[in-house]
Design goal:
- The chain is α/β, with parallel strands linked by helices and about 200 residues long.
- It has a single domain, classed as Rossmann fold, CATH 3.40.50.300.
- Helix content is about 50%, strand content about 15%.
- It has 8 helices and 5 strands.
- The mean pLDDT is about 90.
């Protein structure tokens, strides 16, 4: 039996890192083996993407670094699915559409459309994308204790990224919005129901 691909998206501070381990457990409880992954990856490509977070580089350079990392990552995702695993991924292509779509807004026409077009041969469509949505002002308060800010965490930029994510949710039926202003327990219950709907019955049932 082929596995499935589930992604979790949202701006920083929406609770992805809290939600994902709980989802892993609930999927395993249904008899599936889970392969956890994230983007950027921990490969040399992903490390160069992360290096770009602190460098003043062109938005186009940054975009193509993300795409290069995803090319190799997608091969791994497909292989894990062929082994019958549920691949649970913290960020995937929708992050590029939303974040780089915002960064490229004044440089090219319809940047999200362009990003989707150039990505179509290097991505695998998720079976389900859980989009955690919270006000940028809320997530700024949540991440403030970290004491370190990246160029992706400016308030106006996050507002545009949030707007892009919601546009993607209108465009793709696989993207299901979860209100991340709720408690972590309520977020998990909503996301768990979406995962159960995606997987159907127990694998070993």
């Amino acid at each position: 039996m082929k596995g499935k691909f589930i992604t979790v998206e949202g701006i920083d501070g929406t609770g992805k890192s809290t939600l994902i381990p709980s989802l892993k457990t609930c999927i395993e409880d249904r008899g599936w083996e889970v392969a956890l992954t994230t983007e950027p990856t921990d490969t040399w490509l992903g490390k160069n993407v992360k290096r770009g977070f602190t460098e003043e580089i062109s938005p186009f350079t940054e975009t193509f670094l993300f795409l290069a990392d995803r090319c190799e990552h997608t091969k791994w995702v497909k292989a894990e699915m062929e082994r019958g695993k549920i691949v649970l991924c913290d960020r995937y292509a929708d992050s590029t559409y939303a974040y780089q779509g915002a960064a490229l807004e004044n440089l090219i026409e319809d940047p999200m459309d362009w990003l989707i077009e150039v990505s179509k041969h290097i991505v695998v469509e998720p079976d389900l994308t859980i989009l955690l949505v919270a006000k940028p002002e809320t997530v700024i308060r949540r991440i403030a204790p970290r004491g370190e800010w990246t160029k992706f965490e400016r308030l106006e930029y996050l507002r545009k990224v949030n707007e892009n994510y919601l546009k993607l949710a209108e465009r793709f039926g696989r993207i299901r919005v979860v209100d991340a202003e709720q408690s972590a327990d309520r977020v998990f219950e909503h996301a768990k129901n979406l995962v159960h709907e995606c997987l159907g019955g127990r694998k070993d049932g």
